[in-house]
Design a protein that fits this description.
The chain has 348 residues and is mostly helical. Among the domains are: 15-205, no CATH class; 301-345, no CATH class. The protein is 56% helix and 9% strand. It starts with 14 loop residues before the first helix and ends with a helix.
Length: 348
């Protein structure tokens, strides 16, 4: 299972955070190397060169498909000192499964904060824990700057196989094509939906796609079961309020993880013939914050799929329709979020 979360740098409540993340972004820009030079370097492996060429080809395909020139995006490569480019910290109250939001002046509210330095992420998480919150830290291997910078190919991209890598490029480039302020979950799901559909055309007839789809189907079953389990836990929390203590909430979450989530994960890994060490089945990796992060990105997925199925439009035309709905919504009173406005279209 893979999540590609948008990492925003355009503002924060504290100048020190903005400064550190700004410096981190500039380091990525300044330390990059022209792809042409990387491809000519005999010290660079053929596998990496293959993936750089694949990224360049996927970029051209996306630009042509949506008539969306992206200028200098992915024309240079930055080799990172670690596998991840940054780290996200998500927090939740112990008695809820709901991510705490942070307000940004340009992109709006986001359900996490991102850090280039893992130590900074750990310090921030520790501060939140002292405030009584439950936290989860996850590595980020890709992100979009929404066109504010010329995004680089990052060495963290090379962790993905061919289909995943192309889907990654399509996903991140979609963020430069369409973006709704204050709705991170919708933006992520739209990017995921369009990238997922586009790889069908890019890899048409390629057996790699069939293998990828088979694994994805197993992952889909896991997602559906995890949503069911998480909603059951949320219901239990609601029943016990206002008498639910943090200690009791943590105990209940731990029981749900041990008795329901971990067995489900192990079953998925067996079906995908994975090494058990590759499965995130350690109890401490699952808590209210991680479940909140998971649920944040589930609600809009079905809406997009149902709309696409209902309208029966080719991918380009479906995007044009979504843009039209967005323009209608912007001209209105905006009393409801754009996500809810999309749900209304299912009833039309």
């Amino acid at each position: 299972m893979r999540y590609l979360l948008l990492f925003f740098l355009m503002g924060c409540s504290t100048p020190s955070y903005l400064l550190k993340q700004g410096v981190g972004q500039l380091k990525i820009q300044w330390s990059s190397i022209e792809n042409e030079k990387v491809l000519k370097d005999p010290k660079v492996s053929e596998e990496i060169k293959f993936k750089i060429r694949l990224i360049e080809d996927a970029k051209k395909y996306f630009e042509h498909y949506f008539s969306h020139p992206s200028q200098g995006i992915y024309t240079q490569t930055t080799f990172l000192k670690s596998k991840a480019v940054s780290y996200l910290v998500i927090a939740s109250r112990p008695d809820e499964i709901k991510a705490i939001e942070h307000k940004f002046p340009i992109v709006g509210s986001v359900p996490y904060l991102g850090f280039y330095d893992e130590e900074d992420a750990d310090e921030f998480a520790a501060d939140l824990k002292e405030q009584g919150l439950v936290t989860w830290k996850r590595p980020v291997y890709a992100y979009s700057t929404l066109g504010y910078f010329e995004d680089r190919i990052l060495s963290s991209f090379f962790e993905y196989d061919e289909v995943e890598l192309v889907e990654l490029v399509f996903h991140e480039m979609f963020h430069t094509l369409f973006f709704v302020k204050d709705q991170v979950d919708l933006n992520e799901n739209m990017a995921s939906y369009f990238a997922d559909q586009l790889i069908n055309e890019y890899f048409a007839g390629n057996p790699l796609l069939a293998k990828y789809r088979a694994d994805a189907e197993v992952g889909k079953v896991f997602d559906e079961k995890l949503v069911e389990i998480t909603r059951e836990l949320m219901t239990e929390f609601e029943k016990m309020k206002p008498h639910l203590t943090p200690e009791r909430a943590n105990m209940m979450t731990g029981r749900f993880v041990r008795e329901l989530i971990l067995p489900l994960l192990r079953d998925v890994c067996m079906k995908q013939l994975r090494d058990q060490e590759d499965c995130p089945d350690q109890e401490e990796k699952w808590n209210q914050a991680r479940l909140a992060a998971f649920m944040t990105y589930q609600d809009e997925q079905d809406v997009l799929k149902e709309l696409a199925l209902q309208k029966q439009l080719p991918l380009r035309e479906f995007l044009a329709q979504v843009r039209a709905w967005y323009n209608e919504w912007e001209k209105g009173d905006q009393k409801i979020e754009f996500t809810d406005y999309l749900r209304l279209q299912l009833k039309v």
